[in-house]
Each structure stands twice: as structure tokens, then as C-alpha cells.
Amino acid sequence: MFLSRVLAHPGLAVARPRVLTGSDALERTVRWVHSSEILEIAHLLRGGELLLTGGTMLAGATEEAQRSYVRRLAAREVAGVAIETGAELPAVPGAILAEAGAAGFPVIELRRVVPFVEVAEAINGLLVNDSVARLRSVGVLSHDLSGILAEGGGVQEILDALVRHVSAAASVFDTAGRLIAAGTGPSGPEPEPADRAGGMGARITIRGVPAATLVLHPGPGADTEMLELAQERAVEALRLALLRTRPPNSRDLATSELVRVAAAGAPPQ
After folding, report:
1. pTM
2. DSSP state for residue 24 in the 8-state scheme
3. Structural domains in the chain?
């Protein structure tokens, strides 16, 4: 769920949230909502959280401690921090805003008191439901891809099924950057080979040998978590399809083995 959608949730909207910094980062994905009144909280987070705080500990912290608080949250890839202002903290401290602004890190002011526990429970429930829906959707994709492979379908058929499922353009390139196949999403024409660097890329290997790259081209507001899951399943199917039509030759296999042995630091057998 995007940060912008979380801030619009009825449970949080009543706090009259106002984005003070990081307005360009509101399409960040929020993995979980957490509340804390501890300055040294960053190392306990995994990334992707929206952190809610009443600001009491920030009001009594030094400017350097406030800056460090933001730096550590940003380094942990937290989605953002929402700070409640009121009697103890009339305004979000300037040191926090300066540090967050430099990092492009979202700081949100909550101008009314809300029960953090209830807000977190409500939004986290939605996040769990979203995760379940993604897994079910990817399960359907896996079933479709298995059917295509069983019927002898190739790279293009797999790519077409993927595009239909995720509603995003996709393309497969060989190791030289040449286009093998492409599927058009609802947002526009087929991507050109030059678009390879502009999407979500995943390498496809066959018996340890690089064979191709699958690139997804998400449109605005795309669910990147869903795309990543779908991409993982598609890579497995494409690996099998490419094994039929573009199997690695003996030279490729030998080169791959030499690279593996060199990386392991052991003499070849």
C-alpha cells in the first residue's frame, strides 16, 4: 500500500496529516504501521514501516539527536515518520525537517491526536489482506504458466500471460541485449530494446549460465510488490521455455564452470 493511501485512511485522516518533507516519495510502499516513543528505534525496524510518534522524546532531544533519528530511519529505508504536534511539541523541530528534506525522507505532521494502536490495527489489517490477495493472484499466474509449458508454449506465450496478469508491458532480452520477445501492457506500445534499463530487470540463468533478462515496465501507481512476485514466477517458467529453444552450448557450460571454480577458490576437477 502506498504511503499516500495510508495517509488517506479514515483512521489516520482525522489526525489532519500534513506532509512537511518528502512529498515526492509518497508512492513508497508501506509494509507495516508501527508506533514508538523511543529515539533509538531504527535498528529494530526492517524497512517499509510508517512510524507514528507522539513526539515527546523529540521535544526533549538535542538537535544532533533529532538529526540522527531521521538519518537512521532513512538509512533503514523506513517509509516515513508521522509526528504528532501539540502542547509538548508545538511544531516539528527544524533540525528534523532540514535532515529529512536533504534525504528526501517523508516527515508528516499529525495535527490532531489519534489512538495510534487503533490506527495501526486498522491499517495493518488492510496490509495483511493485500498480501493475501497478492499470493492468491500469483498462485493463479503460476497455474496459467504451468499450463502453457505443459502445452509446449514458448517465451512469447509465457510473456503474453504475464502481461495479461500484471497489466504491465514486459520484454525478454538475450545476453547481448537483443530483444527476444515483448508483450504490450495497457499503458502503451511495445518497449524498444533501449528501454531495457528503465524497468524492473531479473536475470534468467540455465544450469548456471546467464541466458536472458526479463524486464517489466510498470506504469504509474503500479503495485511493485505484486510485480516482483509475478516476475519471480515468470522467471522460472521462462527458464524452462528457454531450455527448450535456447539451451546453453558446451562452451557456455564450461565457461560457467570455470567462473564458479574461480569464485570458490578451488582447483577444477
Report:
1. 0.71
2. G
3. 3-114 (3.40.1390.20), 153-254 (3.30.450.30)
